[in-house]
Amino acid sequence: MTFDDMSLPPVSPEDVAPLMAAVTGSVLLPGDAGYDDERAVFNLNHELVPAVIVVAESVADVQAAVAFAAGQRRPVLVKTTGHQVIDAARGAVVIATRRMNDVVIDAVGRTARVGGGAVWSDVVGEAAKVGLAPLNGSNPTVGVVAYTLGGGLSPSLGRSHGYAADHVRSIDVVTADGELRHVDAESEPELFWALRGGKGNFGVVTALEFDLFPVPRLYGGGIYFPGERMADVLRAWTAWHPGTPETMVSSFAVLRLPPLPELPEPLRGAFLATVRFAYTGTAEDGERLVAPLRAVAPAVLDTVRDMPYAEVASIHNEPTDPLPYYERGIMLREFPAQAQDKLLELVGPGAETGLWIAELRALGGAWDREPAVPNAVATRGLPYSLLGVSVGPLSEEQRLKESVAELLDGMEPWRGERRLVNNLAPDEATDAAAIYGPERYERLASVKKTYDPTNMFRLNHNVVPAA
């Protein structure tokens, strides 16, 4: 019998008394002080309403929470910041890992070992002190573990180094049987393969060790053009980026920004086309590389500069405070002239769209190469990632979803078959076989059967245990 087959009544104080005695962190039921704080997530249009929250402070706390969930036959959801919420977790056990946020940098070995609750700003700051950099995401408040388990598409170093999952050395994970496993390529190779790309399907990661790179600075930022010049900028960028070295990562985005006071004056309430860059070569070479795009049109704002790597989040300058939004992404297998025309039609100057952001990231390079130790990442060989984001309250949910759907459905003729799990929306079909492809999914399902046969970890884009 799996967790899917069970009804999930409320948890009583008597039920959790043994759990509270075993946990050094907090155990919270609905109505308890602190419950609402711990269930809060980054996306204000989603909420968690679990039966119990365990705010873990140690591996032993995580093990106690998993054992409790198993005894109660309840599913488990792991939360650090809640940027990507898939399920409301009704009746479930939520394990909040934010207090387990230790970051230890090995400057000589060029590695980081981080706790399950670390976010990217924690790691970038510590690594930068010794001239090193991780394969971090664009938003500094995203949890390191979930990002990495989902592949990890670094917009600063990924084109030269690949996915964040490609550079994981070892993983400490509590599996559904309550065991703490130290997993690497030698100890448990199948689980190690599946964890790196299979997202949260296989256990609660309590620590992650991964490579760092000697990148103390870069030449990066964004050039913001008037939205009316989108066609010129898009065509110039599309022709330009394939000829750049792998040390140059770039993306193109169309922005319809709200009049928020925290935005710089030129961007406030503006319609813009922007190109973002991250280049690890010299500033002189970077300036030369970017010059053809600077010449396309007069810029509204140009933030491209030489910067310490510690300031890498300024390139995308994404919100760091919770807000209500809906986002969804696809991969593109090509982006020919017809696709460029379609994108202009969908989000260009003449479009009636409610999108806040439509972003196209150029991939290739090391993102296409298999790492020395293969993993379950499914999107190699697909040259573009396309993401749509609409912002607004839950009362406008239908409009938000339709705005994103218009973009992605319009680009359907060029869509790749496989998906990046980190860019999937909560309400998308949970057919993980379509995300990973049949052969990879079959292998993931086999690993799932071994380590989570009752599907305890199912509040996700779920890999179902093999029959």
Automatic annotation (TrEMBL):
What are the required cofactors? FAD
Q: Does the record bear rRNA processing in its keywords?
A: no
Write out the similarity annotation. Belongs to the oxygen-dependent FAD-linked oxidoreductase family.
Question: Which PANTHER family does this chain map to?
Answer: BINDING OXIDOREDUCTASE, PUTATIVE (AFU_ORTHOLOGUE AFUA_1G17690)-RELATED, FAD-BINDING PCMH-TYPE DOMAIN-CONTAINING PROTEIN
User: Per its UniProt record, what SUPFAM superfamilies does this chain match?
Assistant: FAD-binding/transporter-associated domain-like
List the Pfam families.
BBE, FAD_binding_4
One Gene Ontology molecular-function label: FAD binding
Protein name (Swiss-Prot/TrEMBL): FAD/FMN-containing dehydrogenase
Q: Which InterPro entries match?
A: BBE (IPR012951), FAD-bd_PCMH (IPR016166), FAD-bd_PCMH-like_sf (IPR036318), FAD-bd_PCMH_sub1 (IPR016167), FAD-bd_PCMH_sub2 (IPR016169), FAD-linked_Oxidoreductase (IPR050416), Oxid_FAD_bind_N (IPR006094)
Question: What UniProt keywords are attached to this protein's entry?
Answer: FAD, Flavoprotein, Oxidoreductase
Q: Does the keyword Cell wall biogenesis/degradation apply?
A: no
Query: Any idea where the FAD-binding PCMH-type domain is?
Result: 46-215
